[in-house]
Design brief:
Layout lengths: L5 E3 L5 E3 L3 E2 L6 H14 L3 E3 L7 H14 L8 E6 L7 H15 L4 E6 L13 H19 L2 E7 L3 H9 L8 E5 L7 H9 L3 E5 L14 H10 L3 H10 L4 E2 L6 H8 L7 H7 L16
Parallel strand pairs: 3-4, 4-5, 5-6, 6-7, 7-8, 8-9, 9-10
Antiparallel strand pairs: 1-2
Helix pairs in contact: 1-2, 1-9, 2-3, 7-8
């Protein structure tokens, strides 16, 4: 298996279309096994966040694994995210970014995302969230201009949040919007909006969640997987990729890490239609509640 293709972001940098998600993957020994497996298989993108509390272990392990496979920092695309607890406070934002840099053992972050459109301890219904988002973005633009962040983007932003941001983005548009997206929650209107605005969509929860397996056991998904002699997980990931939506599947078992990267097959138009006609249900938190 070889590294999957990249997408060129509006920032001018290339990001692999398939990355490794690390939510809830903690502990240096577990991270050692997961990242070693991933790099060996061909993953060159790793997604983490300040709130995952695993940046330091990822940084420690990644340095060792890169040496093992004769790779350099430039071969890896690292994404991390700002905690809502730092949202809207320039000093906290700057501290968070530099803390992540130290933890990950790097001089720059490839992609830095605002994790959530709301701030901690601020009611979701408070209009102050709009002001705080603008301040956060302006601070990240300054850090991008310093070179410690190469691309900046957002996560869990709906169309309203994006429209507000684009009016006050200081000429630097979000390169990525990372959102929940899968056949049970297609987000067609949001995806169309992002494509029109040249904002790349990256999907999380592509396979459902660890507490809700209804998607990966969906009869229609399983039937298509059987027809193609692939796993249901591969069907779900390919559904996104064929719409130019990148994916960051989380896995800790070696077989799943390998399977999630083995995506050299094609869904037919009929398969795509069948998958895109499933009933809709959301698994993760709902950003529409944030003003």
């Amino acid at each position: 298996m070889t590294a999957y293709k990249c997408v060129q972001l509006s920032s001018g940098f290339n990001m692999p279309m398939v990355g490794l998600g690390t939510f809830q993957i903690t502990g240096v020994n577990r991270i050692q096994q997961v990242i070693d497996d991933a790099i060996r298989v061909g993953y060159r993108s790793i997604d983490t966040a300040e709130v995952y509390r695993n940046e330091e272990d990822i940084g420690f392990v990644l340095n060792q694994v890169l040496n093992k496979y004769n790779l350099t920092r430039g071969d890896i695309f690292l994404t991390t995210k700002l905690s809502p607890s730092s949202h809207g406070d320039p000093d906290k934002i700057i501290n968070s970014v530099y803390t992540s840099l130290r933890a990950l053992g790097t001089s720059y972050i490839d992609l830095y995302l605002i994790h959530w459109p709301g701030a901690s301890r601020i009611p979701e219904s408070a209009s102050k969230n709009i002001e705080l988002r603008t301040t956060t973005w302006q601070t990240l633009v300054e850090l991008k201009n310093k070179g410690v962040i190469r691309s900046i983007g957002v996560s869990n932003y709906n169309i309203r949040h994006l429209e507000q941001l684009l009016k006050n983005c200081g000429g630097v548009r979000p390169a990525v919007n990372q959102v929940e997206c899968h056949p049970h929650y297609r987000q067609a209107e949001l995806i169309d909006f992002c494509k029109k605005e040249n904002i790349h969509v990256q999907a999380y929860s592509s396979l459902g969640t660890s507490t809700n397996v209804s998607l990966i056991k969906e009869p229609r998904v399983c039937q298509i997987a059987k027809e193609l002699d692939v796993s249901p997980a591969r069907v779900l990931l390919k559904w996104a990729l064929q719409q130019d939506i990148s994916v960051i599947p989380k896995a800790s078992q070696t077989s799943h890490i390998e399977d999630n990267f083995n995506l050299d097959f094609k869904l037919s138009d009929e398969h795509m239609t069948r998958l895109s006609d499933l009933s809709q249900k959301k698994y993760a938190w709902n950003p529409d509640n944030v003003i």
